[in-house]
Specification:
There is one protein chain. The chain has one domain. By secondary structure, it is an alpha+beta fold. The mean pLDDT is 79. It is globular, with a radius of gyration of 15 Å. The relative contact order is 0.15. The strands form two sheets. It has a three-stranded antiparallel β-sheet. The protein has a two-stranded antiparallel ribbon with strand order 3-4. The protein contains three helices and five strands, in the order ααββαβββ. The protein has helices at residues 2-15, 31-36, 66-75, and strands at residues 43-49, 53-60, 77-78, 81-82, 87-91. Helices cover 31% and strands 25% of the residues.
């Protein structure tokens, strides 16, 4: 299901002339599907639950060039600023989907 969704999104983006599309997964879930659809990882993410916080660890992907990495950090925000460090702390709470 995820593969079909990603391939559909990628095809639609190409027909609309988009040159860049940001999709994400955490802890490498879906990484093969995203790569198979032609996406190049810019940033890697893991989430570590702590007693009162959740730590989002972010680091550069080995596959990304510096321009792609900088663009990825610009589109991600933490506290209203572009993401610059390697981790972000957030309040632990119930997630609703």
């Amino acid at each position: 299901m995820f593969r079909s969704l990603v391939l559909g999104i990628a095809a639609s983006a190409r027909t609309q002339g988009l040159s860049r599309l940001w999709l994400g997964s955490v802890d490498h879930l879906g990484a093969r599907t995203l790569a198979g659809a032609g996406f190049i990882p810019a940033l890697r993410f893991t989430v570590q639950p702590l007693p009162w916080f959740r730590r989002l660890r972010v680091w550069a992907s080995d596959e990304a060039d510096s321009a792609l990495l900088a663009a990825g950090r610009r589109v991600l925000f933490s506290g209203g600023r572009p993401l610059s460090g390697d981790s972000v702390l957030g309040r632990a709470g119930r997630r609703r989907h």
